[in-house]
Amino acid sequence: QLQLVESGGGLVQPGGSLRLSCAASGSSLDYYAIAWFRQAPGKEREGVSCISRRGSRIYYADSVKGRFTISRDNAKNSVYLQMNSLKPEDTAVYYCAATSSDYLCSNYATRGMDYWGKGTLVTVSS
Predict the structure, then answer these.
(1) Mind giving me the DSSP string for 7-33?
(2) Tens of pLDDT along 60-109?
(3) How many other β-carbons are positioned within 10 Å of the β-carbon of residue 47?
(4) CA 1, CA 20: separation in Å to the nearest integer?
(5) 120-to-8, 57, 62 alpha-carbon distances in Å
(6) Running DSSP on this structure, what letter comes out for residue 114?
(7) What is the DSSP letter of 85?
(8) Measured distance between the N- and C-terminal CA atoms of the chain, rounded to whole angstroms
């Protein structure tokens, strides 16, 4: 069974950067598309970015396009989310999730995710 652990969250000033990592164990990430979601207090969980199983297709929510970059290193069984030009509205708990379906990943189908990490908190504040 796949286990996912996020790391890299923290407190950062507006305009700053963070790099989140999603480390997998128990199985190879080769078989999974990976999505990053976030959930702010009082709001629904929303999809942020998705990378297909082979890394050939990448998707971003409009709210982060041009500022966030998703990447994967299957040799390290990890996926990353580089977040630049952070804004206070980016404050949320960030989760990575795995699915065997590139299609479900690209549509940020929360019910279609097979595995979830426990999340890492990102706070953007001066």
Answers:
(1) E--EEE-TT--EEEEEEEESS-GGG-E
(2) 999 999 999 999 998 999 999 999 999 999 999 999 999 999 898 988 88
(3) 21
(4) 22
(5) 7, 25, 22
(6) S
(7) S
(8) 40
